[in-house]
From TrEMBL:
Lineage of the organism: Bacteria, Pseudomonadati, Pseudomonadota, Gammaproteobacteria, Oceanospirillales
Gene3D superfamilies: Uncharacterised protein PF10982, DUF2789
Protein name: DUF2789 domain-containing protein
Domain of life: Bacteria
Species this chain originates from: Vreelandella alkaliphila
InterPro entries: DUF2789, DUF2789_sf
Pfam family, one: DUF2789
């Protein structure tokens, strides 16, 4: 069975954040770049529930893992 493909905007909705392209870009610019050694889920911009979701998505290789990895790369990238 194939996994569903989740979009960046859906991840932001799942996290309870504004999910339009402009808001996503603003969020990433505001909270990036994260230190290289900092896991995405430990970034100070997340509340406990958001951090748990991000951590579990990767640890459990859940449907969300691919898009969470994309967010991780985006937030660690230097402008």
């Amino acid at each position: 069975m194939e996994r569903p493909v989740h979009h960046f905007s859906e991840l932001f909705e799942q996290l309870g954040l504004r999910s339009d392209a402009e808001s996503i870009e603003h969020f990433i610019q505001r909270h990036s770049p994260l230190p290289k050694e900092m896991p995405l889920a430990e970034a100070p911009c997340w509340n406990e529930g958001q951090a748990d979701f991000l951590r579990e998505a990767v640890e459990d290789d859940a449907d969300w893992a691919e898009v969470v990895d994309h967010l991780d790369a985006s937030m660690h990238k230097r402008a």
